[in-house]
Amino acid sequence: MEKRKLTREQIAQRIARDLQTGDIVNIGIGIPVLVSNYVASDAEIIYHSEQGVLGMGKKAKPGEEDPDLVNASKEPVTLVPGGSYSHSADSFAMARGKHIDVAILGGMQVSEKGDLANWKVKGVKLGSIGGAMDIAIGAKKIFIAMTHTSKSGEIKIVNQLDYPVTALHCVNRIYTDLAVIDVTRDGLILKEIAPGFTIEEVQEVTEPKLIKAEDLKVIEV
Amino acid sequence: MEKRKLTREQIAQRIARDLQTGDIVNIGIGIPVLVSNYVASDAEIIYHSEQGVLGMGKKAKPGEEDPDLVNASKEPVTLVPGGSYSHSADSFAMARGKHIDVAILGGMQVSEKGDLANWKVKGVKLGSIGGAMDIAIGAKKIFIAMTHTSKSGEIKIVNQLDYPVTALHCVNRIYTDLAVIDVTRDGLILKEIAPGFTIEEVQEVTEPKLIKAEDLKVIEV
Amino acid sequence: MINKTFDSIDDAVADIADGSTILFGGFGGAGVAYESILALYRQGAKNIIGVSNNPGYEHEGIAKLILHDRLSKLMCSFPNNKQSYVFIEKYNQGKIDLELIPQGTFAERIRAGGAGIEAFFTPTGVGTEVAIGKEEREINGVTCILEKAIRGDYAFVKAKKADRWGNLVYNKSGRNFNPVMAMAGKITIAEVDEIVEIGELDPETIVTPGIFVQRIVKRSGL
Amino acid sequence: MINKTFDSIDDAVADIADGSTILFGGFGGAGVAYESILALYRQGAKNIIGVSNNPGYEHEGIAKLILHDRLSKLMCSFPNNKQSYVFIEKYNQGKIDLELIPQGTFAERIRAGGAGIEAFFTPTGVGTEVAIGKEEREINGVTCILEKAIRGDYAFVKAKKADRWGNLVYNKSGRNFNPVMAMAGKITIAEVDEIVEIGELDPETIVTPGIFVQRIVKRSGL
């Protein structure tokens, strides 16, 4: 089989397959924003946006923008029928109170225990937390979407974080251009692997020891 | 001057004179419920009711009752124009957060330091707190409306409470059938006295030493 | 398609196990999910820990559950009332436990449960019997006691309208504890006067977003 | 007659003293009380402690105050953004202090301030740099840190409509921090698109009851 790393779009596409009707989903910046493009059109997924929008719809068409209806990246969006508005304390009650089913977030580092770093690069003085910490501890499941290694080849799935922590023990599943990995009490389970890659090749760019899933398969995209 | 204790209605009437337009007022059970009858008709007083009504109006007329619009005693009431509804946590945020200007409450005992007992009689096993404790610590000013002594002649303004405490250091002013008394750091100041009574007569039924106000006057009712 | 509607209130309460903690909305008779409570009575679950501002009046509401010894404990602010004679008698007989909670603390502990706040410091109750056994601390110059979150396995709420996502609006002071209980119930069952089409409720006026509601039943009115 | 309306936004901010803590509503550009901020700029108060989710973009909103060294400290969740270059430069020059707060904790600390809750235990931030110097405790099996209430001497909120009692409704996600900031401001100044007659707002849809609002000004739109 030809070796083929997943594109950003393919990572998003793979994640979309793990969402189901009724899921309330918070979407982070980066690869996660692409996920909704791949959700089946008949699936009713409810998107939560931290500034107090539940049921966020598509981006607003030109001429239909309302400066008071924006997504977390300040872009004009819409509300779907059934959507609602909340103030920020209630919006984060949804997160912190474990009412959000899935948060799909970017990652800078993820540790073997599921610790997440995604808000500030190492050694920098100033970073923005935004809603990252609240959502990482709050959603029932945390999916991380990221490239397996950084552009410079730095390993991102590590034994111990050395980037500033976002939240401890929070990640459930990691989706990269090379693999789908579950974070479990027993360790990291390699569930799916990119076309043409070997377990050894994925292990080489993953610091903790990967456990091969009994039903390990090739990522379908 | 003829000795004349104030009636319950006169106590309420006297309290009403201390309210002014714009005051947000919480009303307890007993004498306090009579106060609104004596507020000037052109004064805009906003009544807060603990179950989530701000701007509570008069009792509902027969045939206009809504079982979902009741006062704290479960009687059907109305809402005035400008009124609004809140859930119970927000309603008590109004109290605890010091947004209510005045609470007018009944009292079983008040101490020299302004400690209040008004939720349970002494020695009884079961009592109802309701909103009493939250409102007593929350309103900016606490006015107590009560008879100066109990029916059996027991003194109610005491050095130390021996009834179950509602809240400590909370009472600002006491209105009785005999006197208007301010609770201050220096002690209890006798501000007004019922027609025909002497300071000594009021002192006799008041355990802590009363301080005569420089401008002591007869209660006008 | 998301559809949280149950045709039968009996189906909506069928899985409630003995020993469950249930949050019951309502203040006086306003905003009480009476039909859900009757269904729970028929269903038979025992040793319920009830969280309700009051214990029901005469034989109505949760008073009926208490009368039949179905509640092992009640957390409430207003247990003692002439019409609450069912509770008072059971309490005096030692057949039901009571945790007496100031009403504002009661509402806030439930909101905390729904909001993932595990505990908070409040000035309410300092120096009273409510403070016994609780940590006391001065914060920002205010003496406070520490109060912990309350959560329910179920919440029984009453609303005016719902849509199939579980968005709710209430009627007047029937709102009371219902929105915070909806937040704090693992499974929130909303008993409503009317179920409307999705998109029919004005998004600016929705008080309880559907995220907090798992099951909806229209009142039969019987 | 109660009338909280000010004809001029300059009058509404005239008494703000140097060193005041001010809560500024808004998320991105949504729900920002821009005219109130400009009036504060004209008014001249210095050493303001600003509480705002972000430090303004380019030279807009509180970025203008920061540019002119009028804020001594900013409490916020999102200081670092390409368009927040004014804050970043002042921060790097040591001209403004920063308290960095997770957004949910930020909103909840402000609500706590408004609700008379002095502090609360939250799981957000455990094990992160946000937890440094804060008490950590396990409650109900969840590791938490203790976070304290935030209050403002003033709150600048933006709403869609008000009546003379100060009842407010908002527009869409322009709501954001405004309702909790209105609660937590000792003097809350509401900048609104429209002032309507008393009784015109549906009581079921009022988001911020007038009890939380002290001053109202209609936007000039200039």
Task: Give your account of this protein's structure.
The complex is a heterotetramer, with two copies of chain A (221 residues) and two copies of chain C (222 residues). Chain A is of the alpha/beta class. Chain A has a single domain, classed as 3-Layer(aba) Sandwich (Glutaconate Coenzyme A-transferase), CATH 3.40.1080.10. Chain A is built from four helices and 13 strands. The mean pLDDT of chain A is 96. Chain C is α/β, with parallel strands linked by helices. Chain C has a domain at 17-100 and 151-218: Glutaconate Coenzyme A-transferase. Helices cover 22% and strands 28% of the residues of chain C. Chain C starts with 8 loop residues before the first helix and ends with a strand. Classes of the chains: A alpha/beta (221), C alpha/beta (222). Chains in contact: A-C, A-D, B-C, B-D, C-D. The A-D interface holds A 49-53, 66-70, 74, 79, 85-89, 91-93, 95-96, 115, 125-135, 137-138, 164-168 and D 27-31, 53, 77-81, 88, 91-92, 98, 100-108, 110-111, 122-130, 170-180, 207. Chains A, B: GO terms for molecular function: CoA-transferase activity.
